[in-house]
Amino acid sequence: MRLLCGAVLALVLASAAGCAGGQDTADAPAPGVIRLGTLVPLTGRSSPSGEAMVSAARMAVDEANARGGVLGRRVELVVGDDACDAGTAVTAAHAMVAQDVTVSVGGYCSSATVPTLKIFRAAGVPMVLAQSNSTDLLTPKYDSVFLVCGTVTAEADFAADWMTRLGARRLAVVHDGTSFTVTLAESAVAAARRSGTLGVAGEWEIRQGAPGYGRAAQAIRASGADVVYYTGYYAEARQLVVDLRARGYRGIVVVGDGATDGPLLDGLSGAQIADLYGTALLVPGLMPELASWSQRYRAAVGSAPGPSTVEAYDAVTVALDAVRRAGTTDREAVRKAIAATDMTALSGPISFNPDGTRTTPRFLLLHATGTGFRLIPQPARG
Fold this sequence. Notes:
Blueprint: E1 34-40, H1 47-66, E2 75-81, H2 86-97, E3 103-104, H3 110-113, H4 117-122, E4 127-129, E5 145-147, H5 152-165, E6 170-175, H6 179-195, E7 199-205, H7 214-222, E8 227-230, H8 234-246, E9 252-255, H9 257-260, H10 270-273, E10 276-280, H11 291-301, H12 309-326, H13 331-339, E11 342-345, E12 348-351, E13 364-368, E14 373-376
Parallel strand pairs: 1-2, 1-3, 4-5, 6-7, 6-8, 8-9, 9-10
Antiparallel strand pairs: 10-13, 11-12, 13-14
């Protein structure tokens, strides 16, 4: 998931982030302190998402400390910036390992997370990935990597089913060439072909940060596609929508969860957002069952929780629950405890398959309106 170079390891006191009772520190760990690390984008185009994830993770840490900590020890959060850039992420991961973290609970851009896997693995640090969900994360077959979100395969199946329900018959898939977006795009093509009812018009790649995508938009219109699935992020998704409508495309546009997380709709007209949908992870403001937690978040952080926050909170919850059950901060014992997780968190039941994927992933379908998104109810099963 994204751009920007330059390594930054941000070890921030919570007071500097506007959250009461923070536990971040850049000092050597105090005796008895349990450290969790969260590596997310704090600079670059995806920084709003990374900052929200840090706020949610810090909230979970603060609440644990308010209850007396874990195993009678205070919990601290080590925050690192990966800028959604592979090189930046590698440098930041090495620095984070040097801070003696017990579990890594970050992960937003899969393209930045993938190269850090072997670094945390070599240090014996288990990873509970809050948002990263590319199937590339599973390629090394590490038994120390656990995904809080469903994989791109599950999201693609969900998307293909909904595109068919919306009446689409011919699919154009667009990605930006990075790990998450490519694997989601490939999974969407495979899901469409399995459906037997959704044909594939073609697959296009666009470049992150380009000023426009008129050529791709023109080709998509000429392909006869009646639905476009863009698997990248909100900055490029917004420009693609603008260019598609400018070239006369009037069909359905669906964006993946990386695009529904952010200011996708800023400045778009009513005509541009007509038939604009998004497959998404959890969006607290649209889910009544998360109202109480959302109020706590607002009180702690000073703003409403957005996409990515629930998963970041749950990643910390899973890690600390595993430390409690392990009765130690020994990383191998904690890894085994994470693998045996069986709990209900904010996002619902959490347990993991042997490959580290979540057994019960959950996705939402959102429909763009003039004021934001509305949740499309999931059809009853059976």
